[in-house]
Amino acid sequence: MYGNDFGAPEEASGGGLLGEVEAAEAALREAAARQRRGAPASDDDLAGFFAEVVEADQKIEPRDWMPEAYRKTLIRQIAQHAHSEIIGMQPEGNWISRAPSLKRKAILLAKVQDEAGHGLYLYAAAETLGISRDELVDLLLNGRQKYSSIFNYPTLTWADVGAIGWLVDGAAIVNQVPLCRCSYGPYARAMIRICKEESFHQRQGYEILHTLSHGTPEQKAMAQDALDRWWYPSLAMFGPPDGESTHSTQSMAWKIKRFSNDELRQRFVDMCVQQAEILGLTIPDPDLRWNDERQAYDFTQPDYDELMRVISGDGPCNRQRMAHRRQAHADGAWVREAATAYAAKRAAENKEKVAA
Length: 356
Ligand code: BYC
Hints:
This protein is mostly helical. It has one domain: Up-down Bundle (Ferritin), CATH 1.20.1260. It contains 14 helices and two strands, in the order αααααααααααββααα. The chain has helices spanning 15-33, 46-55, 68-87, 89-93, 102-127, 133-141, 158-176, 185-213, 217-236, 248-253, 261-279, 304-314, 318-331, 333-355, and strands at residues 289-291, 296-298. Helix 5 packs antiparallel against helix 8.
């Protein structure tokens, strides 16, 4: 939560994260103002130049030389993130026509529209790495690229919309704020804008749950039920434990990832405990307790076997989500055709003007 509407201390409410986004933005501007070492002296110097730029916390830009594996890793991660934003519109979109008031409906519409925008920023960032949007969409539709496990769970009640905002957007922000300092410029810049918008998303979800948990006993029970169902899938969003994370070591060396999956998961848990207290809701973990030595909460890990099943396509809603996306893509074919024809017409007109 980003703000003090609910009387939470700033740090406990996650307000510090928005400050981190602003600091990352300032660092980006400062790095851009600093002179980078000039171009590499020769082709033999390409890898050295890349390593120096990363080491100096400056940004690798699309025209710079980069190791092929760095490019592929970025495409994989950015595309997965873009697909998550687009698929992530479905569980909440499910409630647009059933939102409990006009105000709630307008807010939810704007939020879901924001997710589409985030998908677009991210597809555009991936395209700077030499892959087209069409290729990326094909990779999603034929199951060769992934999207976040979290969107394979159903939204059964209105409180789930609150839980998605509070927990899912909350986990997303904890994961994404460090990406504002990613070594690849276009991704870092996209993440700054996304994180600022996500902060409102998280806050709107928290406000829905706050209203429900301070409402009738039935409403409070609905909020608790949503927390019970979304807690562990939200913890699983951070990925497998560090020991089983295949990409973390290399991604951290390249400064794509800045913290490990477990470090971010811990940070998320520590942030949520006080927020749940303010809501008057109970995190469904009997072993959740403060560890004075570690200065962090001990907690029960999510079921990583379940995570792997969901990632491999066998979650409660995987088939439904992909079928819906394929249908939406097919239904949108005429829009793409019309846009392509219009662009061709404009290009021909411009060519004629230049020739005249
Ligand atoms: N779901 O080596 P690891 C949002 C895969 S959307 C699915 O640790 P990495 C929002 C992983 O890809 C939130 N797959 O990987 C939108 C890898 O498989 P491959 C999306 C997962 O990349 C709408 C394998 O498991 N956010 O914000 O170092 C509404 C091994 O993992 C998951 C992002 O995408 C998972 N949960 O770390 C509301 C953020 N976890 O590719 C909110 C950007 C792991 O080798 N992404 N896998 O076949 C990242 O930060 C990183 O990619 C991850 C995983 C932390 C997710």
